[in-house]
């Protein structure tokens, strides 16, 4: 089965070698690994992030989606008849269908493992033939259970045979022994050494790792005959290594000694980038920061030991905030100028391959991005409320980071205050984006429920003065699934008015603005507030209403767009679709939209929707191509790196999603919470750039084409739903400043607010100071 696929693979390698290769190495010094080859990708049980681990499917997918050199890892467990099976963990019920297959009379057993009593179903109590009746299941509940019970288990012999039949140079077997002392005692005395000696002689695996010194020392003579590299796997530093009765931390202090019996070490990724908890000491449940790298890699290389790193999976949380939830960036931290590890063990090997082979220059340092000319016309990068994935949205730091991160446009989601001042906030409800809940006076008196808006504290019920007392907090769209963004700047920065936002943009080297006017119809009809007049005043004051100004004026209200069209016709208008999949956008709907705007921002629900039951992509949609055939410009809303927002097809890899959207849909721009990730994809991803012929690198090594995502054949289609209704009942926004609205007792006068106007210079000064501080931090 593996070999049919191989032929294709070889073919594609041959074809691709002719292209300029894309490899991360310095031509004059090569790779900074001991072998001077590219770092080894070690697929932890195959693509175990998607398929149940250590099955033919998981292994075959790793080969299909990853470049060579690649090692397939099998976690060894011995059986009652002293044979073996590849499974992770001692307890078979977590990774197999054993519980449903075995007679219900079978009872669990108890063993002492690493000094602790454990009860469960252990492989040493079953023969291989018995275990072979079970099928693999996905032990990780964050991953799809859709393949559970379908795939047969593999033995180390199966894996070795498959790999050798594949005949692919650079495809290797990595056998890991997690419980040496236990298997030296069970099923019988010396079981492990006897099994491994035979296996090494017969199958000559390329790598054998074990968590204990004793077994490795025993195997040195055999391993040298089978050319197997022995690797000592480290567990946490304070844990006792049973064969030496010293801690892993103590063993690590003498690398020279390790080099007498092993060729390498396999360490948790935290051994190289230590974990620094948030300042309040919390790690569990929240993200953390990475400390500066240790010199472990350099030290081990000096002792002639290879360094392999484990613990990589795209869907782990808590994770380091330093990587902006981008698993490619995380891997790149281990492959660089100051040091490069010899191999990375991951549940998502294709992501490691992207990092190693597609980003030879790494990611751009944000402080240098704006200086770089951008020669080709790529899709626009529109930063949603600034770099809101890393900073509280719509704050100065979010906008500064967005500009530095390479955004073409920065977005302000415009809301309005009770006294008619437009402000930038993600949603009119201030509960999730400000610290209003910490202000009992405001919170209790202003908490309201509107049929159209739900419950909360709304900007249009607070005066600007009241809003000035609030501070922004970061909003985590995936907070419901417990993935929270970095809260360290919460409560530190004030709320920006639209005027302040526009001044910031004008002072920042040509960045454009995407002014997204939200709830205009609602506040006009229910609160008698005129957002259209207010926004027109702000844009006019900022002198941003000329043809050629980098301004997009967006709204989900066709009535507001119609009013903008008659008031400031030269500003480009964007119609924003709702962020729900329960309406359909037909060609007729698009024609209706085109009456108000030539540009449409499509929510992801209309472009790459996924099945809410299975979280796999639904069939490809045709809304983008329908809009394109009407000559409309199409923006996508929205990209965010967090794995919890991604369909399983994307392998918890935001880069694969970007790659899929760009190759499948001719999109003109992306609204994103993580603009720097998109920038680096567009301008530093050689695997993708090669297609556009923009960059060439003189590297002679493997190319890792980006894994081509597509909905699985036979994926269900989007359920039929009513057409989106674009037109709104007539409403007049065109009220001269200062005059009361008809039928209105509130009579706001949207205009340039004197208090915000006088505050401008002070705020600009603050901006400059902040930018200066941030520049220092980012450099
Ligand atoms: C890998 O590719 C081969 C050949 O295209 C295919 O038959 C096989 O199903 C693929 N494996 C997986 C897990 O998709
Ligand atoms: C490559 O390495 C050489 C020698 O260390 C160094 O002088 C040169 O700057 C490096 N080139 C790049 C592109 O980093
Ligand atoms: C064991 O019992 C469960 C329910 O108690 C049943 O679903 C399962 O089929 C039984 N397994 C066997 C092998 O009889
Ligand atoms: C093994 O799995 C069984 C069934 O899920 C569970 O009851 C038992 O506690 C587990 N044992 C260990 C040591 O995790
Ligand atoms: C396990 O069962 C499969 C059939 O499901 C068979 O092809 C394979 O040879 C068996 N392996 C072992 C080790 O018994
Ligand atoms: C392991 O070391 C500890 C303290 O270093 C000692 O108390 C204990 O007896 C040792 N155990 C064995 C089995 O040698
Ligand atoms: C480290 O191990 C080497 C080789 O086993 C030994 O010669 C040396 O004394 C050890 N160093 C220390 C500090 O224990
Ligand atoms: C991670 O981010 C924190 C907070 O910004 C910073 O202090 C730390 O230096 C960063 N770590 C690395 C390795 O860059
Ligand atoms: C706040 O965020 C949570 C989690 O995303 C969401 O369920 C809730 O509706 C939001 N509340 C408001 C007022 O937006
Ligand atoms: C630590 O900080 C996070 C983020 O602000 C917060 O959610 C969490 O509750 C805090 N933990 C403790 C123990 O205070
Ligand atoms: C407004 O901007 C335009 C160019 O966009 C410029 O030509 C004009 O001089 C500006 N007007 C003022 C009053 O600054
Ligand atoms: C789109 O633009 C092209 C070229 O400008 C034009 O020929 C075509 O008629 C337009 N199509 C529609 C539907 O407006």
From TrEMBL:
SUPFAM superfamilies linked to this entry: PLC-like phosphodiesterases
Enzyme Commission no: 3.1.4.46
Residue ranges constituting the GP-PDE domain according to the UniProt record: 39-356, 379-682
Pfam families: GDPD
Stored PROSITE patterns: GP_PDE
Catalytic reaction annotation: a sn-glycero-3-phosphodiester + H2O = an alcohol + sn-glycerol 3-phosphate + H(+)
Signal peptide positions on this chain: 1-24
GO molecular function: glycerophosphodiester phosphodiesterase activity
InterPro entries for this protein: GP_PDE_dom (IPR030395), PLC-like_Pdiesterase_TIM-brl (IPR017946)
Keywords noted in UniProt: Glycerol metabolism, Glycoprotein, Hydrolase, Signal
Leading EC class: hydrolase
Gene Ontology biological process terms from the UniProt entry: glycerol metabolic process; lipid metabolic process
UniProt cross-references to PANTHER family, sorted A to Z: GLYCEROPHOSPHODIESTER PHOSPHODIESTERASE GDPD5-RELATED, GLYCEROPHOSPHORYL DIESTER PHOSPHODIESTERASE
UniProt similarity note: Belongs to the glycerophosphoryl diester phosphodiesterase family.
Protein name, UniProt field: glycerophosphodiester phosphodiesterase
Organism lineage string: Eukaryota, Viridiplantae, Streptophyta, Embryophyta, Bryophyta
Gene behind this protein: LOC112274734
């Amino acid at each position: 089965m593996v070999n049919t696929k191989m032929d294709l693979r070889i073919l594609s390698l041959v074809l691709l070698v002719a292209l300029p290769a894309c490899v991360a190495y310095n031509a004059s010094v090569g790779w900074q690994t001991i072998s001077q080859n590219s770092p080894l990708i070690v697929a932890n049980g195959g693509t175990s992030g998607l398929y149940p681990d250590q099955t033919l499917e998981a292994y075959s997918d790793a080969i299909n989606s990853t470049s060579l050199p690649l090692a397939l890892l099998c976690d060894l467990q011995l059986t009652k008849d002293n044979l073996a099976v590849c499974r992770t963990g001692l307890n078979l019920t977590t990774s197999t269908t054993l519980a449903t297959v075995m007679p219900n009379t079978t009872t669990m057993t108890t063993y002492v493992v690493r000094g602790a009593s454990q009860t469960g179903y252990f492989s040493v109590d079953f023969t291989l033939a018995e275990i072979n009746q079970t099928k693999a299941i996905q032990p990780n509940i964050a991953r799809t259970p859709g393949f559970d019970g379908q795939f047969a288990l593999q033995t180390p012999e199966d894996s070795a045979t498959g790999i050798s039949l594949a005949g692919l140079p650079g495809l290797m077997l990595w056998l890991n022994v997690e419980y040496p002392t236990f298997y030296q005692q069970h099923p019988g005395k010396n079981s492990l050494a006897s099994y491994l000696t035979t296996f090494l002689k017969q199958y000559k695996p390329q790598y054998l790792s074990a968590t204990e010194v004793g077994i490795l020392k025993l195997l040195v003579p055999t391993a040298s005959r089978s050319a197997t590299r022995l690797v000592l796997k480290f567990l946490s530093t304070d844990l006792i290594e049973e064969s030496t009765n010293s801690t892993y931390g103590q063993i690590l202090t003498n690398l020279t000694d390790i080099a007498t019996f092993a060729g390498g070490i396999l360490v948790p990724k935290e051994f190289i980038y230590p974990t620094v908890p948030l300042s309040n000491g919390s790690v569990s449940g929240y993200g953390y920061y990475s400390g500066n790298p240790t010199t472990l890699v350099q030290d081990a290389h000096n002792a002639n030991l290879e360094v392999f790193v484990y613990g990589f999976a795209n869907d782990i949380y808590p994770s380091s905030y330093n990587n902006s939830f981008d698993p490619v960036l995380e891997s790149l931290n281990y492959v660089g100028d100051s040091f490069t590890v010899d191999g990375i063990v991951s549940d998502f090997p294709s992501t490691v391959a992207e990092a190693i082979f597609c980003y030879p220059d790494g990611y751009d340092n944000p402080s240098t991005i704006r200086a770089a000319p951008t020669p080709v016309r790529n899709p626009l990068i529109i930063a949603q409320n600034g770099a809101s994935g890393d900073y509280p949205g719509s704050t100065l730091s979010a906008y500064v980071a967005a500009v530095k991160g390479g955004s073409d446009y920065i977005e302000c989601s415009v809301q309005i205050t009770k006294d008619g001042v437009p402000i930038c906030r993600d949603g009119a409800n201030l509960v999730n984006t400000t610290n209003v809940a910490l202000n009992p006076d405001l919170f209790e008196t202003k908490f309201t429920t509107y049929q159209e808006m739900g419950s909360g504290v709304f900007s249009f019920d607070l005066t600007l003065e009241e809003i000035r007392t609030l501070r922004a907090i970061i909003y985590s769209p995936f907070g419901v699934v417990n993935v929270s963004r970095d809260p360290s700047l919460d409560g530190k920065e004030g709320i920006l008015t639209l005027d302040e936002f526009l001044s910031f943009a004008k002072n920042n080297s040509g960045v454009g603005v995407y002014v997204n006017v939200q709830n205009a119809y609602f506040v006009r009809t229910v609160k008698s507030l005129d957002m259209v007049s207010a926004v027109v005043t702000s844009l006019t004051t900022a002198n941003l209403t000329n043809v050629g100004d980098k301004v997009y004026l967006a709204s989900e209200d066709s009535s507001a767009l119609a009013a903008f069209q008659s008031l400031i016709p030269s500003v480009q208008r964007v119609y924003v679709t709702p962020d729900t999949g329960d309406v359909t956008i037909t060609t007729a709907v698009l024609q209706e939209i085109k009456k108000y705007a030539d540009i449409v921002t499509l929510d992801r629900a209309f472009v790459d929707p996924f099945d809410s039951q299975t979280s796999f992509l639904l069939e490809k949609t045709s809304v983008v191509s329908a809009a394109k055939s009407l000559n409309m410009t199409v923006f996508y809303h929205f990209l965010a790196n967090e794995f919890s927002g991604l369909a399983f097809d994307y392998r918890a890899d935001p880069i694969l999603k970007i790659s899929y959207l760009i190759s499948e849909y001719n999109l003109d721009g992306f609204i994103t919470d993580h603009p720097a990730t998109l920038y680096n994809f567009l301008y530093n991803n050689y695997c993708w750039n090669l297609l556009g012929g923009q960059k060439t690198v003189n590297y002679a090594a493997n190319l890792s084409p980006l894994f081509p995502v597509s909905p699985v054949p036979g994926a269900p289609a989007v359920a039929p739903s009513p057409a989106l209704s674009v037109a709104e009942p007539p409403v007049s926004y065109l009220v001269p400043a200062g005059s009361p609205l008809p039928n209105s007792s509130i009579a706001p006068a949207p205009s340039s607010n004197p208090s915000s106007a006088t505050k401008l210079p002070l705020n600009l000064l603050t901006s400059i100071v902040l930018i200066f501080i941030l520049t220092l931090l980012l450099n």
